[in-house]
From TrEMBL:
Keywords: Coiled coil, Cytoplasm, Endoplasmic reticulum, Repeat, Ribonucleoprotein, Signal recognition particle, TPR repeat. The gene is Srp72. One of its GO terms (molecular function) is ribosome binding. The lineage of its organism: Eukaryota, Metazoa, Chordata, Craniata, Vertebrata. Belongs to the SRP72 family. SUPFAM superfamilies: TPR-like. Its main location: cytoplasm. This is Signal recognition particle subunit SRP72. Residues 575-596 have a biased composition (Basic and acidic residues). It comes from Leiothrix lutea (Red-billed leiothrix).
Length: 680
């Protein structure tokens, strides 16, 4: 009895310690006291619960979950449902957390909050939106602002990833988080300018709220603003301002933010800007996308986009095996997605295996008819690159949902014209016109009231007629022009074309139709000549003639007389000009190109060449034997002293030799020999 009493007293003291530490937030010391209590009674439910809470507060989620799973008999799902689900959520076991929440007998407010977070991570946005609406409606505490922020985040995710037009929640954007989420929703709708204004407001609110705390430094503020600046850079990138976006992205990376998800997204966006250029920078940036925990921070579509870009980067860096491996993995994850098969086909084309690439695309089109149109367009492009234009046309004509579109008709006609296959081009026009006729009949539902043809239909008929006239198919063109004229008898242009066509086939019919042309009186055009000359496209503008006063008239007349008296100045003649001598007709040609040029006379100065350095002339003083090295030097000429002194400063003393030395004579002899080779 005394031992039991002593144990109870010790336990009471320990519980007091646990309570005091919990209030002070010292959960590490509280955990030590709880462990001592459990040594006294290992199945104490309250002590086990406290131990789980202390471990969670210390961030030891795995150990806390281990305690729960070890004591399942004592810690039932009703007792620790929230703690177990929260540990699973923090350990990224999202599916397990969802099962734990759903299996709880009582749905507390804490479980509902966690349920909303779990649904968001699972990207079940509709259910998540309903959960947060229910929480906001039925809760009144200090966490209402956080719930509204989470609600706006769900709406932004729907707008971005599911392209759902967000509804106006009526939330007052008093915090920078709400402004940021609103901007994300606007980006999803493509309203980039409005989104940028929201982000600028979010930045301002963030600075205001954080600057109020004296403990927050400027570095802390910049780190918090990093995600806002990242979204600003993304908008710049979407707007085509890639240089500004790249600069802002690199500024964020220099800050070294702790959010691995933010770094991965920025690195991916830089890679998309680089494309096939600056691949070394892209290879550095791709390492940021492989950081630990990135897969838990980003959505599935973000992760998929990063993997696509990794495959493309492998292709650009000529890592064929890596590219095939990544694209095959992506295709197995998303068999219906277009990009993996397109990347594989692009890699095959880089390896000059065009036929294999076309076969790969054809197999995908057969397996996934819903995506066949885009795949066949790529196949046609490959055929054109190979020079098989006719085969490309056949592929394009097999796309039923596009073959009647004006753009497709234009492309096919151009390609057939290039191949000089006029019959096939006309057939394309005919099929498209027939399709629109059938479409007209379907929309009229058998009504007897006349319905005018659509503008696209009439445009196709006109283009077909022009094409046939251009290629000499006048009879076929006439039927199209008659159809157009029936639709609009007042169309003078069509009537003129019809008359022109008939004049080559049936002149009598052309005369009959010409009676329907309007008279020349009705064709008179009211044209304002001044307005036409002053228009933007006028090449010549006539000066407006204003009324001149008497003085101005005299000035104008005086200027006119001066202009009349001006004569062209005579050209200057050379000083030695002789009018009696006929000028040389070849005087404008260079001397070498003139007919009388005989070249330079050689050997004229041969007798003047004496001893000395090459190129020097021999004078009498140099041939005088009396002027030897022993003779006293003459006075230097004015101005030569500076040159000598400068030369003596440049040449070191050990390189100087006395005048008349044998070495000097040798050098002169060598120079003479060299000169002999040069033609002296």
């Amino acid at each position: 009895k005394m031992a039991a009493a002593a144990g109870a007293a010790a336990a009471a003291g320990l519980w007091s310690e646990v309570n005091r530490c919990g209030q002070n937030g010292d959960f590490a010391r509280a955990l030590k006291s709880v462990n001592k209590i459990l040594q006294i009674n290992k199945d104490d439910v309250t002590a086990l619960q406290c131990k789980v809470v202390c471990l969670i507060q210390n961030g030891n989620f795995k150990e806390a979950l281990g305690v729960i799973n070890t004591h399942t008999k004592v810690l039932t799902s009703d007792v620790v449902a929230f703690e177990k689900a929260y540990c699973e959520y923090r350990l990224n076991r999202i599916e397990s957390a969802l099962k734990t929440i759903q299996s709880a007998s009582q749905q507390t407010d804490k479980l509902k909050e966690l349920y909303g977070q779990v649904l968001y991570r699972l990207e079940r946005y509709d259910d998540c939106l309903a959960a947060y609406r229910d929480l906001i409606r039925n809760s009144q505490d200090e966490y209402e602002e956080e719930r509204k922020t989470n609600l706006s985040a769900v709406v932004a995710a729907q707008s971005t990833w599911e392209k759902v037009v967000p509804e106006d929640l009526g939330l007052r954007e008093a915090t920078y988080e709400l402004c940021y989420n609103s901007a994300c929703a606007l980006i999803g709708q493509g309203k980039l300018n409005e989104a940028m204004k929201k982000l600028q407001k979010a930045e301002e609110l963030c600075r205001q709220s954080l600057s109020e705390d004296s403990d927050v430094t400027e570095e802390d503020i910049e780190a918090e603003l990093a995600i806002i600046h990242g979204q600003m850079a993304y908008i710049m990138q979407l707007q085509g301002r890639t240089e500004d976006a790249l600069q802002l992205y690199n500024q964020i990376i220099k800050l070294k933010p702790t959010d691995v998800g933010l770094l991965a997204v920025i690195a991916n966006n830089i890679i998309t800007i680089n494309k096939d250029q600056n691949v070394f920078d892209s290879k550095k940036k791709v390492k940021l996308t492989n950081a630990e925990g990135v897969e838990h921070k980003l959505s599935k579509k973000q992760l998929q986009a990063i993997e696509f870009n990794k495959a493309l980067l492998a292709m650009y860096t000529n890592q064929a095996d890596q590219c095939r491996k990544l694209s095959a993995s992506l295709q197995s994850q998303s068999p219906e997605h277009l990009l993996p098969v397109l990347i594989q086909a692009a890699q095959l084309c880089r390896e000059k295996q065009h036929a294999k690439a076309v076969g790969l695309l054809q197999d995908f089109a057969d397996q996934h008819p819903a995506n066949a149109a885009e795949i066949k367009l790529t196949m046609a492009q490959l055929k054109i690159a190979q020079g098989s234009v006719t085969k490309a046309c056949m592929i394009l004509r097999s796309i039923e949902e596009l073959q009647h579109k004006p753009g497709m008709v234009s492309a096919l006609v151009t390609m057939y014209s290039h191949e000089e296959d006029i019959d096939s081009a006309i057939e394309v026009f005919t099929q498209a016109i027939q399709w629109y006729q059938q479409y007209q009949a379907r929309t009229n539902h058998g009504c007897c009231v006349f319905q005018p043809k659509s503008p696209v239909h009439l445009s196709l008929i006109r283009e077909a007629a022009n094409f046939k006239l251009k290629h000499g198919r006048k009879k076929e063109a006439i039927s199209d022009l008659e159809e157009l004229w029936k639709q609009n008898p007042k169309d003078v242009h069509t009537l003129a074309q019809l008359i022109s066509a008939y004049s080559l086939v049936d002149p009598e019919k052309a005369k009959v139709l010409s009676k329907h042309l309007p008279s020349s009186d009705t064709l008179s055009l009211k044209v304002d000549v001044d307005a036409l000359e002053n228009s933007h496209g006028a090449t010549y503008v006539r000066k407006k003639a204003g009324k001149l006063t008497g003085d101005n008239q005299q000035k104008e007349q005086g200027q006119g007389e001066v202009k009349k008296k001006k004569k062209k100045k005579k050209g200057k003649l050379p000083k030695n000009y002789d009018p009696k001598v006929t000028p040389d007709p070849e005087r404008w040609l260079p001397m070498r190109e003139r007919s009388y040029y005989r070249g330079r006379k050689k050997g004229k100065k041969k007798d003047q060449v004496g001893k000395g350095t090459q190129g020097s002339t021999t004078t009498g003083s140099e041939l005088d034997a009396s002027r030897t090295a022993s003779s006293p030097p003459t006075s230097p000429r004015p101005g030569s002293g500076a040159a000598v002194s400068a030369a003596s400063n440049v040449i070191p003393p050990r390189h100087q030799k006395p005048a008349g030395a044998p070495a000097t004579k040798k050098k002169q002899q060598q120079k003479k020999k060299k000169g002999a080779k040069g033609g002296w």
